[in-house]
Amino acid sequence: MRSLLAAAERLLAIVVGAACALILLGGVCVVFAGVVWRYALGDPLEWSDEVALAVLIATTFLGAALTLQRSEHLGIRVLRTRLGPRWGPRADGFAAWVVFAVSACLAWAAIPLLDSVAGQTTVSGLLPASIDYWPVLLGAAAMTVFALFHLTRVPPGAVLLSGAAVGGTAVLAMLWGEFTPAAPGAGLWAMLVVDAACLAAAVPVAFALAAGSLIYIAITGVLPVVQFSQQMQAGVGNFVLLSIPFFVLAGLVMSVNGMSVRLVAFLDLLCGRVRGGLSVVMVVAMAVFSGISGSKSADVAAIGSIMLPAMRRTGYDERDGVALLAASAVMGETIPPCINMIILGYVANVSIGGLFIAGLLPAAVMAAVLILVAVLTTRRAPRPAAPRRSAADVMRISAGALTAFLLVLIIVGGIVGGIATPTEVSSVAVLYALVVGGLAFREMSLRSFTDFLVRSASLSGMILFIIASAEMLSYLLTVNLIPQNMAAALAGVGASAGPWLFMLIAIVMLIVMGSVLEGAPALILFGPLLFPAAQKLGIHPLHFGIVLIIAMGIGLFAPPLGVGLYTACAVGRVSMESVTRPILKYLAVLAVALLLIAFIPAITLALPRWLGVS
Predict the structure, then answer these.
(1) Whether 241 contacts 58, CB under 8 Å
(2) Against a cut of 0.70, is the pTM above it?
(3) DSSP output for 582-594
(4) Cβ atoms of residues 83 and 92 within 8 Å
C-alpha cells in the first residue's frame, strides 16, 4: 500500500513539476517577445502582460504545491527539533493537518471565484478571465493531496490526535462565528494566537499565516470565505513580482552552465593569493552573484558549493567559512536585483529602481568591514599555493568571467537606465544566461535544464506563496486600522524623542521579526506599517527601505532562529551550534555598519541623487 501511495505521489509531482517548468519557460519567452515587439517592431503585444500575469499566478500556486511535495517550504523548526519521539510526530501531524485545512479551504473558496468570472474576458478581450483563477484551484487541490500524502508518513496515533486538535479548533471557530460572531478585536487576537501556535509547531510560514486569517474569517463572520482566495490571488497579481522567479531562474542557470564557477575562478585569480584571500573571494563573489540571482538561497548554495570545499582543502576553518558565507549573504540583501528589495518596493510603493541604486554604497560598506574582519581573523590560515597559469589560461578565465559581468551590466543598466521594467530585464537575463552560457561553455544537459526549471519553480512558488498569505494577513490588519494606528503611535514616539529613536525601534523590530518570520513575511507585514510613520518624520523612503532590508537580513542569518543561517549550515554540512560563535563577530560588524548607514543618510542617498532617481 505504501509503495502505491509513493508511486502516486511521485506521478502527481512529475505532472505538477512539468507544468511549472513549461509555464515558467513560456513566461520568459512571452515577456521577452513583448520586449522585442515593443522596441524592435514598435508594436506592443496587447496580450503579453495578461499572459505574464497568468504565468505569475500559476507559478505561485502550482509552484507552492511542488514546494510542499519537496518539503521545501520555510518553517521555524527550532522547537520541533527539541521534541522527543512522543511529541515530535504529533507536531508533524498537526503541521500536515493545518496545511491540509488551509489548502482545502483555498480550493473550496476558489470555486465561487471561478464562477464569478465565467464568460468574462481579460482587458484585451483575447483571453478568458478565468486564466487568472484556475491556477488557484488547481494548485490548492494539488496542495491538499500532497498534505494527505504527508499524513500517511506520520504514525496513525499522532495523525488522530493532531487531527482531532485541528478539526476541533476549526469546528469551534465556525460555530462561534455562526451563533455568536466575535468582535473584530477578538478576531485579531485569535488570529495572532493561531499564527504563533502554528509557527511554533513548525507549520510552514505561509500556511501558518493563512491559518490565522481563516480563523479570523470564521469567528467574526464579517467576510465571505471567497475573500480568502480572492485576496491571496490578488496579493501576487502584480507584473513586477514575475521578476522574482525570473531572477531565481537566471541564478540557477548560472550555477548549472558553468558561469558561476568561472566567475569565482576569475576572482580567485585577482585576489586569492593575498592573506585571507579565499575569504575575500567569497565576499566579492557573493556581491557579484547577488547582482544576478536575486535569491539569497540561490546565492548561498551557488557560492557555498564552490568556495567551502576550496576553503577546507587549504586549511581554513570550515565553521568560519560558513559564518562568513552567511554574513556575506546579509551584505547581498542590498545588491540588485535582491528579491527582498523587489518585495519591499512592491508592498511599500517605493521605487524598485531607486532601491537598487540606493543599496550599492551600503553594500560596499558592509563588504569592506566583512573583508577587514575576515582578513584579520584568518591570518594564520595557510595561503593556497599559487598555481602556474599561462597567458592563455588567464585569458580563458577572464573571458569566462566576462559573460557573468555582462549579465550584471544588463540587469543594472536596464533597470536603472529605464530601458525596461525589472520583469522585462529579468527575462532578458534568463535568455542571456541560457544562450550565451550554453554556447560558450556547453556544460548544460537536457536533464540539468529540466532540473533547474523545476527547482526555480519550487523556490519561486515558496516565496510567492508567502507573499500571497502575508498579503491576506496584511489586508485583515488594514481593514481593522492596525497600520494606521501603529503608524500614528510610532510617529508620536519619533516626534517626541526624535526620528533616530524611531529608526532604532524599526531596526530592532526588523531584526527580531526577520529572525522569527524569515525575510519576505517580515518586510510584507512591517514595511507598510512603518513606512507611513517614517514619511511623517521626514525620513527618505529609499534610506528607510535599505535600513529595513539590512536589519531584516541580520535577523535572517542570526542564531538561533535565523532561517538563512540554517541554509548556510546545510550547504556547508556543519551544525548551527558550531557556527554560532564565529558568526557573532561578523554580525557585530554588520550591526555597526547598519548604524552608520542609518545615521548617515548620504551613504544611501548619494548615488540615487547623483543619478536622479531619488
Answers:
(1) no
(2) yes
(3) HHHHHHHHHHHHH
(4) no
